[in-house]
Amino acid sequence: MSLKLYDTLTRSVRDFEPADPPRVRLYACGPTVYDHAHIGNYRSFLVYDLLHRYLKWSGYDVDFVMNLTDVDDKTIDRASEAGKDVREYTAPFTESILADARTLGILPARSYPLATGYVPQMVSWIERLEEKGLAYATEDGSVYFSIGAFPAYGRLKGLDPEFTRPGARVADDEYEKENVRDFALWKAAKPADEAVGAAWDSPWGRGRPGWHLECSVMSIAELGETLDIHMGGEDLVFPHHENEIAQSEGVTGQTFVRHWVHVKHLVVEGEKMSKSLGNTITVHELLEEGLGPAAIRHQLLGAQYRRELNFTRDGLAASAAAVQRLLDFEARLAETVGAGGVDGAGNRPPAADGGAPATATAESGGLAGPLARLADEAVEAFRTALEDDLNSAEALAALFVFVNRVNGELDAAAEVAQCDLEAARAALASMDEVLGLLSVAHEDLDVDDDFASEIESLIAERKAARGDKDFARADAIRDDLVERGIVLEDSAAGTRWKRVR
RNA sequence: GGCGCCGUAGCCAAGCGGUAAGGCAGAGGCCUGCAAAGCCUUUAUUCCCCGGUUCGAAUCCGGGCGGCGCCUCCA
């Protein structure tokens, strides 16, 4: 079995095969860094991360690059309002977006190229397009891509080839284009561009690159002429990615991208998220409200990436509970003491005390105990779900089936073999390498040493109170700790504590 | 208008021709000093509606109804 991924260009689920295994050249369209990124951006980033993590988990050597757009109309407008240079204006947002991504457990890309760092390369790319007759300059000093000269134009979006036919020159207010759909490769500088430092010298005069060009030039510069996977939000299919194909293949003559992956937009509380509705949510806000990053992660992975996902406050609470269930399960596995060790062949040693042989493995009739079998089944189901076009919802289900079955086994069994426990722990850790739920939650819930020792001493005090049947005191200690975000759980093995959101 | 997606329990969400995963929430029970955690039972005889194909359909086809996305430098 291997990964099957939907490909926008062929509109079909295809086997994923990198051109040069085990290397995978992975490129994603990142955000425009003019503000904090919103929850929709992060859905995309989390899908990028899911694919990134899954590929690594599967043994690929992933070279992941995500661009950051720091020069375009939005950054220029905002920088202008703030009276700052465009790079000076965008840098803090770049920082905050990447910081929030780290908090959400998004694995870093190898490189985050900025458009402003590639202007000379973009200029020479335009010159090559001109040489090939795919671009033309206009009198005002702008340069356009001529879609009529690129027969494959429109294939990604499935557009009628008719409309790429070169028509009469279309006189715009200020431009002169051969076809209304021709797009800017180079835009003549306006005073506002100059004011914020968003203008560069070029053979066509002062100006700035068109937005679409940066991805072609930067992805090829960083990863080579053919990318294995190019990802983005569904809104980027047209015109952005259509234009990237035209620019890239127009120059190289090579297939630009082997696999196009597009993430469906989410909705918020059942409505499209948009600035006009005033319902945009940024991850920055959610984190500042104290919502757990693992819960955000869980909700965003709760639907397969090509399905609409409804991001809600109620859903976030449900996700927080689901993450807690995982944490509790992990803690239970960690504190369960296994019976006996194993030799290299997985055989149980004779019981040291001469007692009855362990039933856990004996009843299973094999060397692998019930937990080890459940672990194998879970990882297999998990893998199968992800191989099926990154079905994260089904992968999560596989994980939770595992949690339920193992908990049941642990409740029922008198004792569990050490090797069996290890197998269960390893399976959980392995699945979390892809999901990143537990690791993010731990990062989030860490308690400093002082507080931890205070908790321990309160637990000791409570134990004494319970010993004296002073339940009022014992409960008061427990209630106070709950106020401080610490939940106590008594069991035969003693009292354990956990921090909750 | 063009292209495309979706309608499954109270909410979220899998399922891709073989007899309804999972999470959250709810009810009852076991365990517990009480809790928490965990487990067990329970919560859709049924998948928007109507036809059709099939031994068999939530799954395929046709027609409705309803919701949504992109086509505008929004991931």
How does this model look, in words?
- The protein is of the alpha/beta class and 501 residues long.
- It folds into three domains: 29-290, HUPs (Rossmann fold); 311-441, no CATH class; 449-499, no CATH class.
- The protein has 17 helices and 17 strands.
- It has helices spanning 39-57, 73-82, 86-103, 119-131, 191-195, 211-223, 237-252, 283-288, 293-300, 313-335, 359-364, 370-387, 392-412, 418-435, 437-445, 449-467, 471-483, and strands at residues 4-7, 12-15, 23-28, 61-66, 135-137, 143-145, 170-171, 176-177, 183-188, 207-209, 229-233, 260-263, 266-268, 271-272, 309-311, 486-491, 494-499.
- The strands form six sheets. Strands 4-3-11-12 form a four-stranded parallel beta sheet, sandwiched between helices. It has a four-stranded antiparallel beta sheet with strand order 5-6-9-10.
- Strand 16 and strand 17 (494-499) form a beta hairpin.
- Helix 2 (73-82) crosses helix 3 (86-103).
- The longest helix has 23 residues, at 313-335.
- It is elongated, with a radius of gyration of 28 Å.
- The two termini are 39 Å apart.
- It binds one RNA strand of 75 nucleotides through helix 1, strand 11, helix 7, helix 10 and helix 13.
